[in-house]
Amino acid sequence: MKLWAGRFQKETDDRVNSFNTSLPFDNRMYAHDIEGSIAHAKMLAATGIIEASDTEKIITGLLSIKNDIENGTLTMDNDAEDIHMFIEAELTARIGDAGKRLHTARSRNDQVAVDIRLYLRDEIDSLLSLLRDLIEVLLSKSEEFSDAIMPGYTHLQRAQPITFGHHLMAYVSMLLRDIDRLCDCKKRMNVMPLGSGALAGTTYPIDRSVTCSLLKFDSVCSNSLDGVSDRDFCIELASAISITMMHLSRFSEEIILWCSWEFRFIELDDGFTTGSSIMPQKKNADVTELIRGKTGRVFGDTIALLTVMKGLPLAYNKDMQEDKEAIFDAVDTLKECLVTFIPMLDTITVKRDNMRLAAAKGFINATDLADYLTKKGMPFRDAYKISGSLVGLCVKNDTVLEALSLETLKEYSDLFAEDVYDAIALETCVRTRVSEGGPSPDSVLRQIQLAKTELEKYK
Q1: How would you label 227-243 residue by residue, b for 16+ Cβ within 10 Å and e otherwise?
Q2: Angle between the 83-95 and 30-46 helix axes, to the nearest 10 degrees?
Q3: Annotated catalytic residue within 53, 155, 167, 249
Q4: Domain of 415, in residue numbers
Q5: What is the CATH number of the domain that holds 58?
Q6: If we measure between CA atoms, which residue out of 390, 392, 374, 394 comes closest to residue 382?
Q7: Which of 195, 258, 279, 416 could bridge 409 with an S-S bond, Cβ 3.0-4.6 Å?
Q8: Which residues contact 372 (CB under 8 A, 6 or more apart)?
């Protein structure tokens, strides 16, 4: 029998039961439901609303249910509407009338609102731990390859010389922002709705500060209507996850390019690639392709949450049951991607020589050639034109700027001297980019140290 069945004269149709149940996906919140219920029971005893002896029975019963779920001796009742009603019904079956007193001064509306906050708060901590691990790998690789010259790109065209360490540190910057967003989201999530009741609070003399402290929330929600109908924290978390997935997808796309035969900048470990059923030479970067694909799925979760909430009047509506599958999927997907991506990145083989060769062939020192003339007094636009003309000459003659003779260079400007060859050497081009945040090895090492200091704030 349903715990809410008193007003009804007939049983719910089986098709409605099947359609209505959320147990198949909200059962993962069993531990958080029990945690919230234990805190609620302690508050009921502390305020004299129920007897302390009943609270003791409730706590003992709830802990036994948690233990039995975790050791597999208690299986979920498929007839239960959700995890909250399953646990309450099981508790009552075990301890009798004391179990029926647990729901005093509480509604499923504020119960589920507190459960999902507790659950997602823990999930954010798991995501933060994984992101820190990924950043640690990137910092290690960036330090190892702080002087590995490669072409930097704009429009996917070779543009200017950078280092592989510099390129990886760009993703460290992105991921640090992702961590900051998740921490910010957790701060706004950490407000307790329990005590809001169904929507209008309760006539019982509850003390919300007790449950707030027991459940380690920063504060209680200030409005009971908002307390049960707010899902901003789900939308915000899904949005933050979407941005992180977008960063992983961009990184994945570059890895796919880098390990292709056209680039051959890196090689993925055999343990993180797959082959072809028909083409024996293939070594596919399927991990990164899946991450790229799953990013769209997470974007969909975010849009689903926004769409569910956009037309709902206050307070609780059954539509809001749709919040869980979307936000659970977003969290699960990011965790799954990170768990695979971190060791894949940690085991890559970096091909320095191929990166250096690609940099040498791309005229990516053309800006440095123009800068050379500018530093000798020529207006930049005139220097730009000469540099472009010399690139055209090189293309026509299948050569590179540093291979042009000084005699040829002087045909374009008398400012050219022997020192031009050192000025446009790739190593010089990288080393002399001394502006803060640039690609020089010294700059990359400073960026690494700054990132390590920043990361310490989130540990």
Answers
A1: bbbbbebbbbbbbbbbb
A2: 60
A3: 155
A4: 366-424
A5: 1.10.275.10
A6: 374
A7: 416
A8: 383, 420, 423, 424
**Is 84 part of a structural domain of the chain?**
yes
User: Which residues 6+ apart lie within 8 Å of 280 measured at CB?
Assistant: none
- Give me the residue label for tokens 């290690």: 140
Same domain, 402 and 351: no
| DSSP 8-class letter at 338 | H
Domain count, the chain: 3
* pTM listed for this prediction: 0.92
Looking at the DSSP bridge assignments, the partners of residue 158 are 153
Question: Does the active-site annotation cover 242?
Answer: no
Q: What is the mean pLDDT of the chain?
A: 95
Annotated active-site residue 37? The verdict is no
pLDDT digits (tens, 9 = 90+) for 117-137: 999 999 999 999 999 999 999
- The CB density around residue 89, as the number of other CB atoms within 10 Å, is 18
pLDDT-derived band at 7 (thresholds 50, 70, 90) equals low
The active-site residue out of 53, 126, 213, 276 is: 276
